[in-house]
Write a structure and sequence with these properties.
The chain has a 7-stranded mixed sheet. Helices cover 34% and strands 15% of the residues. It folds into 3 domains: 90 residues, Alpha-Beta Complex (Outer Surface Protein A, domain 3), CATH 3.90.930; 38 residues, no CATH class; 231 residues, Rossmann fold (3-Layer(aba) Sandwich).
Length: 390
Amino acid sequence: MHPMVKPALRRAWRNLQYVQFGATPAHAVVLGPVDTTTGSLLGMFDGTRGLALLREEARALGLPDGRMEALVDRLADAGLLDDAAVGDPAADALRKEDGALDRLRADLASLSVVHREPGGAIRRLAARRSMRVQVRGAGRVGASVAALLSASGVGRVEVLDGECVEPWDVAPGGLAAEAVGERRDAAARRLVSRAAPGGRAPRGAPRGGRGLGQTVGRAAGSEPGLSLVVVAPRDGLAAYAPDPRPADDWVATGTPHLYAGVVEATGVVGPLVLPGGTACARCLDFERADRDPAWPRMLAQWRSGRQSRVPACDLGLATAVAGLTAAHALAFLDGDLPASTGARWETSLPLLDWRSERIAPHADCTCGAAGGREGVRTSDDGPEQATMAG
């Protein structure tokens, strides 16, 4: 182990005895009391020294035996310690991949803030390389989501869409103007390939637990299963009021899926459906019909009626939706339950105030979520306090 105080967290002394790591309440930690000599040793936790050398440095500073080990334990317990030389085959492979880690260093720094355990950041970043995500839709939202996931290190990002790229599909970070007239799936494949930081993970690469590469629907020797499906249709109505029929297979196979899109002047992210655990598209249908008996009749007209060839999809709104969707997808792939789990986030022009709505599993739905247990999310309101003998 080569201990390193997480460099992504800004450091500031609150007074002569207490030091704060991190500026924002969500991840800030106050450590102390810390005397001057221990503070000097703390400055040596930069990832360049192993435990044996740090032990020698502590003795040279006149610190009693065991003080260095106690400091390591305190830093680890507080979530402030990283391991610059974590031994993990997937992490080692990522380090050796030419240019990939340099592209992902900002993502690695962010993951180190979010995940407390030493080495947790590089392990999660490496685990992304073995994941397979499918994005359904290559409009302004879907294509950008696919590019963001690929650029964030997801090993296989597939985009499903038909027809050809239209001029109004073009977006910075999405399909390029040069792709107009080409098949959307082919243009999206090139986009995903260009965005990828280095080579792809090999097909059939080993996978870990849920959120660290687990996939579903995979038999021995078959196509790797899907870690996540992102449903981002060009017609945003299909994200705002998703048709439950295409999702039946995902529910049956336990494939997580996340809805996102722009309908008229409203952006939608969620729900993230965990089959058997959170409300599905059919639950949403039932719930809306309970609230508004006219909803099924209107929805049938909207789905079957003639639609405008050009959707109302503001570029800034679409980009915001794509960014939030990709962030929620990555949080899930990294092992967390984002705020869209069993909930939908919406924002509308021109005020753009995000609001959320919980979607409860419906008792009449056959998905089984009504009898399941939903994930629990937690949050912090202020800096964590970490006490340490001086």
